[in-house]
Known about the structure:
about 300 residues; alpha+beta; two-stranded antiparallel ribbon; 9 helices; about 40% helix; globular
Amino acid sequence: xxxxFDNQKARAAGWFRSLRDKIVATFEELEKSHTxxxxxxxxxxxxxxxxxxxxxxxxxxAGGGLMSVLRGGRVFEKVGVNISTVFGTLSVTAQxxxxxxxxxxDVEADPRFWASGISLVAHMQNPHxxxxxxxxxxxxxxxxxxxxxxxxxxxxxxxxxxxxxxHTTQESYLKVHDAKHYPRFKQWADEYFFIPHRGRARxxxxxxxxxxxxxxxESDFALIQDIGRAFLPAFVPLVEKRRCQSWTDGxxxxxxxxRGLYAEYNLVYDRGTKFGLATGHDAEAVLMSLPPLAxxx
Length: 297
């Protein structure tokens, strides 16, 4: 059984790396191909890549990953695409959070864990281009394993046809697995990305699933792969359509205020942020999702 799980872990980590490579290449091509409209004379940017490390107990090897960030580009004001594979022993704080999930009430008896995933957040130069978030992951303990993730669109200036395209594309990738997945995962995203203290959602939604385990690893892995595959066809056409659209100072102001919602959500509610910091992962990588500039009025 351990060998079987080792193989599954390696396949999952390899998939997240291949998805990362494809997204980074696609985004750099968008930067190069932006030759008209606002900032078209701005030099195209490439991702800066550095290794990240998780702090283990007594300096033990606890895994890490790659942090890839593109800043100040023609199309992307800031976009980060991170992958990580971390392992070790859950801290007391992390154990307390996990005990309420996935039948892990006895996690204290054996708090070992392994987790791998990809996390992406893009904040755009053009206020008409929507910001976007995507992540998928696999989590394992001796007690249970599961997958999670999804993607959601965060426009500061909403376009109904953009929202429709984003959701329709995701639905098309999910329905080959189960027709019930999309409505369920969409509702989950609507609930998860809601900001209680503002009484509103941070964007126009998407899909989200967590603690997903049917007991059939292959089919569950196939689902999480298709959630990842859906991202580029759901998002890139929106960027291609909006990136040359002219904007005003007022549009930019709307964008900066809207980014405040994103920052508030990620710092107060986001599970991934809390888990990453609680387990000692590289703080810069964990907080990569924060916008480069934001504004509160």
